[in-house]
Write a structure and sequence with these properties.
Blueprint: H1 6-19, H2 30-37, H3 41-53, E1 57-59, E2 65-67, H4 69-99, E3 102-110, E4 116-124, E5 139-141, H5 146-152, H6 157-163, H7 179-192, E6 195-198, E7 205-213, E8 219-228, H8 237-254
Antiparallel strand pairs: 1-2, 3-4, 3-8, 4-5, 6-7, 7-8
């Protein structure tokens, strides 16, 4: 096995310290850490101090440590994402059973390059032989997807302005290229209650997206129906949109949202 670098070794040691905290052991002294990890006191203190500086631990007046606010935030996000998937999955399955087109559930995320993206956290396929590629686990561009635009339209204005400063890559001849054009589209999405991406991510791919709201009324995810243009025709889109909006509303309501 390859020996970890000094930086990676420090990360591993810090994570092991965090794992020492349990429901029964919610505070630790530096002596506890030294005994449990085998680290020397100086190294243990340095790691504990770094975790405190980053908000992952908090130092008490008696010198002991307990979990800090940053871990609570991360834990809350993980819990909320899991709750979102569990809530959405049966509704998505019913939607797919009804319209027989692929449905995805996507959340706002950041890709390795630091750009805001849509992350596909759940996907349910249709039964057609002619299908579209699997997007589960993929980071997708906000401006070229129905889900991204549906969510973006309901974010705070300052967050919208920050996100649309990102460079716009052209995926097809219909991909939006300018922030001004995207802003106009976002205004229309707010009026319509849904977003549409016509072959903007891939040629032949049509997608519809609606926002999902949490119990605070915050847009926390998007629900999508997608399929090839030969099936997602202009005649079918109104019916598909109706089912999609109803499903998105049902998920939001089960998360505690009240319009």
């Amino acid at each position: 096995m390859e020996k970890p670098s000094k930086g990676a070794q420090a990360v591993v040691r810090a994570l092991r310290i965090l794992k020492l905290f349990t429901g029964k052991q919610n505070t630790l002294t530096i002596q506890d850490v030294v005994k449990a990890t085998g680290l020397n006191r100086t190294t243990a203190f340095r790691l504990l101090s770094t975790l405190v500086d980053e908000g992952f631990l908090k130092r008490r007046e008696d010198g002991s440590y307990h979990l800090g606010p940053e871990l609570m935030v991360l834990g809350g996000l993980a819990s909320r994402r899991d709750t979102l998937r569990q809530t959405a999955q049966p509704i998505m399955q019913n939607l797919v059973d009804t319209v027989n087109e692929r449905s995805t559930l996507e959340i706002l995320a950041t890709d390795p390059a630091g750009n805001a993206t849509m992350l596909v956290v759940e996907e349910i396929d249709a039964t057609h032989r002619l299908s579209i590629r699997d997007f589960a686990g993929s980071h997708l561009p906000i401006y070229a997807t129905s889900t991204g635009k549906a969510l973006l339209a309901h974010l705070p204005q300052d967050q919208i302005e920050q996100i649309i400063q990102q460079p716009f890559e052209s995926f097809t001849h219909t991909t939006v290229q300018a922030a001004a054009d995207l802003k106009l589209e976002l205004n229309q999405i707010r009026k319509n209650g849904f977003a549409q991406a016509d072959e903007e991510l891939e040629d032949g791919l049509i997608a519809l997206g609606v926002p999902i709201f949490d119990n605070q009324g915050v847009a926390c995810a998007s629900l999508c129906l997608a399929g090839p243009s030969v099936r997602m025709t202009r005649e079918k889109i109104p019916v598909l949109t109706q089912h999609l909006i109803a499903s998105g509303k049902k998920i939001s309501e089960q998360l505690g949202w009240r319009n």
